[in-house]
Amino acid sequence: MIKQSRKLWILAAAAGLLALAAPMMALEPAIGQEKLEAMAKTASTSEEHAAVAGHYRKWADALDSKASLHEEAAAKHAKQLPAMAHKWPAMAYNHPAQKEKRLAVQARRAANEARQVAMKHVALSVELRAKV
Question: What radius of gyration do the chain's Cα atoms show?
Fold first, then answer.
């Protein structure tokens, strides 16, 4: 009986981890970051630059979604801040709410950078198309 309940507990824990990991795995780009950077470096035609720009736009949208998830988690954890954190915010630096806020800011910055790279590739695509 104990072995069976232990197996059920392990299965439930594994299912929970998969449920938590699924949204984050969906946010990964369709192609790897290294492959995307290699595509950006080797792009030489208008169509290639347009494709790279599309991938970077998708990556930026995924990062925005990731930032939204972190902001929701930060709001949830902010309700659990200790009272001392309001008087001395530095005391709550390692609190999960602060960590989630930092992760959300990082994701937003990365999304903005991805959008800038996408705009650069759109400009290159338009420039190459105008030459033809």
Answer: 21
